[in-house]
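User: My collaborator and I are trying to settle a disagreement about how two of our proteins should look. Neither of us wants to argue from intuition anymore, so we agreed to look at predicted structures for both before our next call. Could you fold the first one, then the second, and keep them clearly separated?

Assistant: That sounds like a sensible way to settle it. I'll keep them separate. The first protein:
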Amino acid sequence: MARREIRVPDLGDFKSVEIVELVVKPGDQVRAEQTLIVLETDKAAMEVPSPVAGTLLELKVAQGDRVSTGDLIAFLEADETAAEAPAEKAAAPAAVQTEAPAVPPPARPAPERPASAPVLPPIDEPGFARAHASPSVRKFARELGVDLGQVKGSGQKGRALLDDVKLFVK
């Protein structure tokens, strides 16, 4: 089994984006192309997939952290029988992987958080990640502690709107 580094894929013009959801935790078995984390900018959300199947050994990021292209996300113990992720998705951003050095690099200290920033409990519901909503609606729902999986969307194709979240809270 090979220990692999999972890094943030190319983010284009964005220098620093927020991690809004950790989909997996250390010890979880993951499939190739399974979402590991969700990144969010002001305009879009992006899922970062696993390049190979295996076992997640260690997460190097936390929800709320800001990351840039090439930052280390996690270490994954790749299955020996696992093949690389399908090449047909080459047009989509893919995580960069390299063989890990024998000695893991020192852990980067977590950035200091301002004392005034409220700490919100993470929403672990799988429905939140699958909800059909824009990033601004997701952020609003997270701030209110609303599970988007339970909100009935009134927008096109069942998309949850800001008004839907407000009505759900009432």
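The second protein, kept apart from the first:
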Amino acid sequence: MFLSLMCEAFYLAPADTSLVESTESEDADESSGDEFYSPQSSPQGSPFQTRREYSRPTEDSSQVELHSSPIRFLDISEADGIVSQVVLLMGSGITYNPHVVHICPLDEGVHLLLMFEIGNVMVSSGLYEVFHYLNVLQSVRLQREMDEVKHTFDNLESGIKKVFEGLKKIRHIRPEVENCQRKLHSKWDFMRKKYLEYIKTTDSECLLRVEASTAPFMQDLKELLQLTCFDNKMIDIGRDAVLAVASTVKHRLSDFSSFLKVKALRNFTLGSYPLLTLN
């Protein structure tokens, strides 16, 4: 996860980033300057090997479709040189917790990552279960495996209950979240009724009603996910503290910046020099 976020930091850098230029110039002038020796070359797939690839992003159709969608989950905020993003990270067990991730540049090629848990764990985990079992339910429903349909529906209902219980525990719920909750409750009551009828009678008419109501139900789920787990307003909370921490760490690492550059670019390790110690 940390390597992925670091690659994201390099991906966000301009194509003509100074890091790439400095790397290329060092390679060209290697014979004229000091040389640094390493016991082994950087492994394939390491951040150094992939840096140039990520520094030159290419546009693809999935990204274009994502940014054109009215509901966006991957908005990236960049202010004061710090790149911030709301992500969903897996916790202990099957729980998915929303976090704000701040990528703070300390020096050329050196970044500090700060992560803060936000939101309601019960809501985010419940939404994950609902999306998962809706997908499974669609598959088993097409196969007409009624035992599996009933079992998956029970799990789906459990996930929905978890979402509603989590929303009740939010002290100050926003009007837009409350409105989305009401719409979701109404559509779920209809879907639940039709699914129970379908499980009991296997009537194709009930199945058609269920299929017709699934799309708007999914849209409300996405809206609730956006409002409760991917709210970019949470990025600004504690921003001053993030800036203060980044500034302090940058100042205290200033004496080691040259060493860190060598280690990052040349795969330099202290283990290669047993007599070298740091006090």
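Some points you might bring to the call about the second protein. Residues 175-201 form the longest helix (27 residues). The radius of gyration is 25 Å.
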